[in-house]
Write a structure and sequence with these properties.
By secondary structure, the protein is mostly beta strands. It contains eight helices and 43 strands. Strand 15 and strand 16 form a beta hairpin. Helix 4 crosses helix 7 and helix 6 crosses helix 7.
Amino acid sequence: MTHGVRAVALAAALFGVLASAQSTAVTRSSRSGAADDPRDWPAYGGNAAGTRYSTLDQINRGNVSQLRVAWQFDPKDTAEGAGGGGLQVNPIVVAGEIYTITPGGRLVSLDGATGTVRWSFNSNSRGQRCRGVTYWTDGTRPRILVGFGRYVYAIDAALGTPLTPFGRDGRIDLHQDLGRDPEANTVDLTSPGVIYRDLYIVGGRTAESLPTFPGDVRAYNVRTGQLVWSFHTIPHPGEYGYETWPKNAWTYIGSANNWAGMAVDAQRGIVYVPTGSPASDFYGGNRVGDGLFGNTLLALDVRTGKRIWHFQAVKHDIWDRDLDAPPTLITVHRNGQAIDAVAQTSKHGYVFVFNRETGEPLFPIEYRKVPGSTVPGEVTAEAQPFPLRPAPFARGLLTEDMLSNRTPAIHQWALEQFRTFRSEGQFVPFSIGRDTVLMPGFDGGAEWGGSAFDPETGNLFVNANDLAWTSSMRQNAPTATIARGTYVNQCAACHGLDLSGAPGFPSLRNIAARRTPKQVSDIIRNGSTRMPPAALPPAVLDALVRYILNPETNDTGSAAQSSVDIAYDFTGYHRWYDPDGYPAVAPPWGTLNAINMNTGEYAWKIPLGEYPELAARGIKDTGTENYGGPIVTAGGLVFIGATNYDNKFRAFDKDTGKLLWDMTMVNAGNGTPATYEVNGRQYVIVPAFGGKAARRGGAVPATGGAFVVFALPGDPSRR
């Protein structure tokens, strides 16, 4: 630990000196940084295929119990205006050099062996940070592509300085080239783009209510930043899928965007793109039809952006069932043959597996009739797809026998409340005046951390949340003032109609005592944590800020309607917690799953995480909400942080699921780890900054943290 403390102090001191737009590079590794060097972690998810697999085996089943902290790096920058608390990044490593985003929205380069800061880049643009960065080289001048808010920069990997000319005024502006007023809405980069030769392909994060931008998938020249092609996820007239929407929907409907990340089959020249739901998320009366290509896994020709095949996982989504994880390119063995496939996990607990070239399902998918909506104007799809194998990795139907038994009183409370809900499984529309159970909840099931694939066993590892959430619908008031109406449409789903907040979403009551009007305005414009930035006209923004600061006296302004106003909206994201702040369903509340992709059968399934205070009372192995994915190594190990409340980093035997090692960190590791080798020594890095824990009993989740790097003790040459 002494070495780790020294590294932290040195790194922090250097960071204070170098926290500017550029710095001088220090001594660098002699390695050139080939994209296929097995000692590196050169891409988000480990490689272009997104397998999160490493061939490194110095750390293995036999010695992982000796794993220790090699060094830590606390960037000591604030997250204000750059996304709030926490950090969800998957660092990349090339030639022993780490490239990552910090909580305050900087791009830094660290020495992989010591944590020494080589350089730091600050874009000075406020906005949502990205979950990772993209590396590209032609063998002469490597660059890092990084998104800050609406802009993407190309940064010299050696010096940390912006490369120009690039895009418009030295950066790609994601608000441009969408066919709409670039200042009317907002889009930023959540998950990093992917590379194919000289192309840089990106999606983006859009608002989930109208108005918002469409979720076009775009490819740019990686050298110049100029747009090469766009794919319209909301088809224009004459394009495939146009007939699945109202004829003018392409002019006003938004989202259906890729925010979770992509995977590239470089040999075939195919990019696999999962998309989210169209906006608005929960009412589709103004977008009647199946709505291609919302909630769809797209296979696009990476050279041209042309559709090769697609699979729509949710038709006419009104549940916010985004495909919220990047796809994983795998190889399935059937009848003595190897089939290259793509696996896509989902919020609702399914794994869909397809032939990469043809889109043919490798396990049967059955279309079943589902209930219709009772909300006026809503027209739901008659049937939805259900994969028959593998079995769901999260529970999809909540029944009375699945309620919490933590205490008899809690069980009785849960039973009485449950009997007021509608609980009938997947694809049950929300109704007016009565909450419907969504299980797994709005955050999944699977989430953005992604899955890991082990080519040795054919097992896919996916962590999952296994909680119930509820919600219902309400009629929007057409006569609402600008201030109140904007709050109801843009904010109330998370922060409550009365500004009281909800589990995982802060209360806005008395916010004037904690924030200035400018701070509130900046958060609305730039976003914070899971809250996307909102592009509002100045007069509307000012009215909204005044209303939030003092709703009793600032509910002013005339009513304003537009072509995208919707008649109904949902009442908010309601985690179903008991009065003590724990899930109201029986454990497991979070799991780690190993699924054999050759057979569709489970190799193992275990609870993931626990609440320390419950464990101290003998209530162990409950599992918890978890965010950030696993990685798997040739050393026989699955590494994962992710768990919200115990702040642990764990290593499991990949064949059995047996826990082999764990360590408590400074905060929760809500980001996918990475592993790499420098000077013959294997390291594992995880961002431990928390940020996803819901408030329980009024407690505020811890902020701050560090990048924590583990290695075996001693001289690697003597092992």
